[in-house]
Each structure stands twice: as structure tokens, then as C-alpha cells.
């Protein structure tokens, strides 16, 4: 997405083995240690998800643990809501926990959402304190507000063998509410020799089959979707999650994306503000086994010139199809939706999507499309796409022009009313040049045709999907979104936790395509705080939204220009080409890119990463 141009492991307390004196004839006394107490890995917080109400918890009032409207759970239906009154107030929540003495590792985690009416960016008026025993683990405040839940993690191994109080205290001052919302609290214990989590990404090789029919305006779509997938992990897969991203644009009581009549598994309660649906499989899948789930799907497009919205007669339908969440060594990736950038993280998949719509509507879409006659006055558009991370489409009485890039990529430009013929032709020319420029640097464009949908009413500069982009009339924005076909589309990444891996790389690619060398651009860098880093996640940027574009886009691409100047133009070009090739349809991480960059030069890059605040 392009922003609009307008705008320390603690010491473990281990049980000492008792000694026993054994006296033998004609031999000195000796001591033999008893076997160390064994650790059985366990989770010691009771009712950490609050699904049994306040059971096992002590709360300052009966309204702390709740399922009332105004906030939502991270998982299930209940959560703990501290404060949020807008007046002088204190809420507390606590539970006595026993940390086993035979375990070398103990980790406390909880999910926290903070919203506030405070407008200050410098003063902590309202606070939440997390403690274990007499130790304060952290203090959060209105300054830490976020748009969704963020997981917090603390090493509490030093409390092994102790029974202590786990306590949360929220305090508000006399005005302007701050709400501290907790859910899914856990304290996991393990032996130091416990093997690492399985880092294999799964479910793998998804294949989606979708059949939808629209109303006359193209704003309501109903039908069926199925998803076939394989467990790539050595760990059995007992459930999957569907991401219903566009429920961000509605409410849990009236969600724009509905999934009903699930087959192939049992649907659970919507989570993460109704953007994640767990489905328990009837039998856990062993490594290499496959399964299929199916469901009826309803999509209601809201008003607004957005990546999911309609602008007059024109509907834009991005992130509407439910897709499988990713599970790896970190567990399930169930991050919240962000409107400031992207949260979308999915593995490359195949799609076959059939869209039945009025013939008066043109339907540009991801993949290669074929139109056939439907029932009276209707057309059936069948789009097929392989190895793509998502599927998007639009519907409306667009004006369409087409062309082919010099390297042979078919390009279609769809314009809403009000876009002049000259501007449409300019965008077609830009697309033809951009797709070939990026392909020459990073590898041939693999998605068949490329559709660009143009509307100057978009509040953002542009938005990328595989083979399909939304843009203003802007050479820079369109070149950027087409660059995302490689950096996000082909070379995937976790867009919520590592947004720089697609946005910084794409803005760097855009500069190269437009002939900009980024000379001296790092000279203008001015950090807002010591916490600000190019590699920060969207959880950070949602709390510091005014800095997101500056740091991730501008500082990020300037860092890559600096890397090119340090290792040389040829080495940098070879690095990015080979990195794209080795991660083709895969997932990029900061650690992997740093390793590849270091392998491309004899220069020690340690200080470079530090200076440019690239961590990971």
C-alpha cells in the first residue's frame, strides 16, 4: 500500500537435591545426589481466557470480567475490561498462581488492547500495571494505545517454586477514558531441554474454489467457498483459522463477511474483533495429510472509496475472501486488522473464482479471467490464479483500455467515471513500463495479465493485490503498487510484524524504476525516539501512525540505497535478484535478508544494520 501523496533470561530457582549418607564397611562415607525433580510442561493460569467468567480470579467489581458490548475478546466471548469510565477510577484483577519448582523456564503472556480518549502524545494520565508477587513487570498507559490486541511476554522463571499473586491494576485520572482490555492470559512452564517449536509454516499449498453471485449493483455477493490444504508440519494440525479481514469494516453484530454452514470441521466463536474464525478439524492431520473445509459465504460491500468499499456505481472488493491463517514456530498468526497499512499474511495459494454478475458490470480480478454468457442479462467471469496470496476484484461500469508491455504482459486499465481518456492512457503507459522494469530487476512477472483500477477518490495512494491494483492517477503510486507484485506477492512476508520487507523494498524498487538514486536521502533522517526503528511492527506504527510513512517508506528505501552504495551497484542488483529467486512464492524474514546481504559482501555489515535501525 502506498500512503496518499496528499496527505534477559532471569535466574531459575531450582530445587537442590537432598544428600544421603551411605556408610559401607571399610569405606568412607559418601554422598549421592537424588534425581532432580522432573518438569512436566504446563500452563498454570486458570481460566486465562475468561470463558468461565470470573472463576479463579479476584476482581475489584463484577464488571471487570465481562462480555458486554463496547470492547471485544481476543478469543472466545469474554475478556477483562479495566477502567474506561472517564473519571477517577481504579480496577484490579488478580489470581494466585504456583510456578512449579522443577521447571527451568516460565513465561507469562497476555494479550492487551488499549483505547483512549486522551489526545496527548507525551503524558501518561491513565495506567495499567502488571505485577507478579512484588515485582512490577510493566506499566502501560494511554500512550500505548493500539487498534487491536498486542501480545506481551515476560520471563518469570525466577519465581519457580513459589506461589505468588499475578495482578493487574488499572488507574484513571479525572477525565477522558482509557480502557485496558486483557484476554488469553497464560503462564507456561517448561524444562530447559524442551525442543524448539516447529517453525514449519502450515497449512500449506492452499487451493480455494469460490462461486459467487452478485446483486444488480455488485455490492452484495453470496455463494460458496471451499479450501483444500495440507499439513506441512511434523506437529499434528487439529484446527485451522480463517481470516475474515473485512469484518473490520463492520461490527460483530452486523459483519460484512459471513461464514455459515461449515463442512469439514466445526466452527468456533469469532475472535480478534470478528476477523478470525477457528475451525476444529474432525481428526488431526498428520504431516503430509490434506483436508478440505467448505462454507457458505456472504459479502456486503460498505460505502466508501476504499480497498473494500463502493464509490458510487463502482465496488472494490479486496481481502473479502476468507483465507487460511498461517501457523509456525510462533503459533497462529492472528494479528488485528490495521487500516494504517497491512496485516495480511498468507501463504501462496491457487484460486479458481467464479463471479456471476450483471453484464452491465465489468469485473477486473486477480488472475486470468474468461467471460461467458450467464442467464438473461448476466455474465459469468471465471478467474484462475496460481501461487497468489490473496484474490481481489472490482465491479462497475468501468471504462476499459488494454495494451501489452514490451516483454509481453497483458495490461488492462479500468477507470471510474471522471477519469479522462488521457489519464487512463497515461496509466496504461506507466503500467507497461513499470511491469517490465521490475521484471528485469527481480524476475519475470508470473501472474499472466495485470489489472489496474483507477479512481481519484481513493483516500490512499494505491493498494496492491496479486495481478490487481487500485490506484489514483499517479505515476509514482502505480509504479509502487506494481512493484508489490514482487515484494509482497512473489516474495511474501508477514506484513503486520515486518512491514518494511514489502514497503521499503517496493519503494526502493519504485525509485529504481523511475530513475531516482536516493542520493543523500539518509542525510534527512531524524528519529522521533530511541524506540523508532525501520523494522518495527504495525503494532508500533498504529500507535505512532504519523511516522509510519516517513520511517517505513522513506527511511527504509534510503537504507537500501545506502546498502547499494556500500556494497556496490552490481552486488546489490545481484543480491535482490538472487534473494527474490530463492524466496519465489516463499516468505522473507529480516534475518534471512540480512544474512543474504552479508553473504554478498566482504564488508562487515554489523554497524550498517545498527546505524540504520534494522533489527531482527
TrEMBL record:
The keyword Signal applies. Residues 444-611 form the Peptidase M1 membrane alanine aminopeptidase domain. Keywords: Signal. PROSITE patterns: TAT. One of its GO terms (biological process) is peptide catabolic process. InterPro entries: ConA-like_dom_sf (IPR013320), Peptidase_M1_aminopeptidases (IPR050344), Peptidase_M1_dom (IPR014782), Peptidase_M4/M1_CTD_sf (IPR027268), TAT_signal (IPR006311). GO terms for molecular function: metalloaminopeptidase activity; peptide binding; zinc ion binding. Residues 1-31 form the signal peptide. It comes from the Bacteria. One of its GO terms (cellular component) is membrane. Gene3D superfamilies: Galactose-binding domain-like (2.60.120.260), Neutral Protease Domain 2 (1.10.390.10). PANTHER family: PROTEASE M1 ZINC METALLOPROTEASE (PTHR11533), PUROMYCIN-SENSITIVE AMINOPEPTIDASE-RELATED (PTHR11533:SF174). This is Peptidase. It comes from Streptomyces griseoruber. The lineage of its organism: Bacteria, Bacillati, Actinomycetota, Actinomycetes, Kitasatosporales.
Amino acid at each position: 500500500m502506498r500512503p496518499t501523496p496528499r496527505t534477559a533470561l532471569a535466574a531459575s530457582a531450582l530445587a537442590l537435591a537432598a544428600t544421603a549418607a551411605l556408610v559401607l564397611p571399610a569405606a568412607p562415607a559418601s554422598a549421592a545426589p537424588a534425581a532432580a525433580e522432573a518438569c512436566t510442561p504446563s500452563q498454570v493460569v486458570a481460566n486465562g481466557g475468561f470463558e468461565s467468567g470470573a472463576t479463579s480470579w479476584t476482581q475489584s467489581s463484577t464488571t471487570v470480567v465481562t462480555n458486554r458490548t463496547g470492547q471485544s475478546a481476543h478469543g472466545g466471548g469474554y475478556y477483562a475490561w479495566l477502567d474506561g469510565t472517564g473519571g477517577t477510577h481504579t480496577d484490579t484483577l488478580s489470581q494466585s498462581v504456583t510456578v512449579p519448582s522443577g521447571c527451568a523456564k516460565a513465561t507469562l503472556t497476555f494479550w492487551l488492547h488499549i483505547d483512549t480518549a486522551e489526545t496527548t502524545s507525551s503524558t501518561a494520565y491513565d495506567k495499567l500495571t502488571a505485577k507478579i508477587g512484588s515485582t512490577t513487570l510493566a506499566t502501560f498507559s494511554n500512550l500505548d494505545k493500539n487498534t487491536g490486541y498486542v501480545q506481551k511476554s515476560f520471563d518469570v522463571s525466577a519465581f519457580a517454586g513459589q506461589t505468588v499473586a499475578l495482578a493487574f491494576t488499572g488507574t484513571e485520572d479525572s477525565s477522558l477514558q482509557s480502557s485496558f482490555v486483557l484476554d488469553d492470559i497464560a503462564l507456561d512452564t517448561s524444562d530447559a531441554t524442551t525442543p524448539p517449536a516447529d517453525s514449519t509454516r502450515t497449512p500449506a499449498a492452499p487451493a480455494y474454489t469460490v462461486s459467487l453471485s452478485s446483486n444488480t449493483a455488485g455490492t452484495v455477493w453470496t455463494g460458496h467457498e471451499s479450501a483444500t490444504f495440507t499439513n506441512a508440519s511434523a506437529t499434528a494440525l487439529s484446527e485451522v483459522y480463517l481470516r475474515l479481514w473485512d469484518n473490520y469494516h463492520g461490527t460483530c453484530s452486523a459483519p460484512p463477511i459471513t461464514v455459515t454452514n461449515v463442512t469439514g470441521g466445526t466452527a468456533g466463536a469469532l475472535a480478534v474483533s470478528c476477523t478470525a474464525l477457528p475451525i476444529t478439524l474432525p481428526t488431526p492431520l498428520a504431516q503430509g495429510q490434506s483436508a478440505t473445509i467448505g462454507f457458505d459465504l456472504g459479502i456486503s460491500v460498505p460505502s466508501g472509496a476504499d480497498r473494500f468499499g463502493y464509490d458510487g456505481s463502482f465496488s472494490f472488493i479486496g481481502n473479502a475472501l476468507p483465507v487460511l491463517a498461517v501457523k509456525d514456530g510462533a503459533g497462529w498468526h492472528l494479528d488485528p486488522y490495521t487500516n494504517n497499512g497491512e496485516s495480511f499474511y498468507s501463504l501462496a495459494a491457487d484460486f479458481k473464482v467464479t463471479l456471476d454478475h450483471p453484464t452491465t458490470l465489468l469485473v477486473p480480478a486477480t488472475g486470468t479471467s474468461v467471460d461467458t454468457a450467464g442467464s438473461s442479462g448476466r455474465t459469468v467471469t471465471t478467474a484462475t490464479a496460481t501461487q497468489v496470496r490473496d484474490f481481489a476484484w472490482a465491479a462497475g461500469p468501468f471504462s476499459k483500455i488494454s495494451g501489452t508491455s514490451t516483454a509481453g504482459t497483458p495490461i488492462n486499465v479500468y477507470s471510474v467515471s471522471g477519469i479522462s481518456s488521457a489519464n487512463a492512457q497515461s496509466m496504461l503507459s506507466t503500467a507497461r513500463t513499470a511491469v517490465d522494469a521490475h521484471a528485469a530487476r527481480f524476475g519475470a512477472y508470473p501472474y499472466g495479465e495485470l489489472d489496474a483500477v483507477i479512481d481519484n477518490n481513493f483516500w490512499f495512494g494505491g493498494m496492491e493485490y496479486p495481478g490487481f491494483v487500485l490506484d489514483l492517477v499517479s505515476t509514482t503510486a502505480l509504479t509502487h503498487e506494481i512493484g508489490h507484485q514482487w515484494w509482497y506477492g512473489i516474495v511474501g512476508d508477514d506484513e503486520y510484524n515486518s512491514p518494511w520487507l514489502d514497503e521499503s523494498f517496493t519503494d526502493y524498487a519504485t525509485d529504481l524504476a523511475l530513475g531516482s538514486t536516493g542520493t543523500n536521502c539518509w542525510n534527512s533522517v531524524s528519529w522521533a525516539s530511541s524506540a523508532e526503528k525501520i523494522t518495527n511492527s504495525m503494532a508500533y506504527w498504529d500507535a505512532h501512525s504519523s511516522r509510519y510513512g516517513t520511517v517505513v517508506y522513506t527511511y527504509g528505501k534510503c537504507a537500501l540505497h545506502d546498502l547499494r552504495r556500500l556494497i556496490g551497484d552490481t552486488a546489490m542488483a545481484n543480491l535482490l535478484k538472487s534473494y527474490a529467486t530463492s524466496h519465489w512464492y516463499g516468505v522473507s524474514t529480516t534475518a534471512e535478508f540480512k544474512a543474504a546481504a552479508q553473504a554478498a559482501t566482504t564488508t562487515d555489515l554489523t554497524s550498517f544494520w545498527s546505524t540504520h535501525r534494522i533489527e531482527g
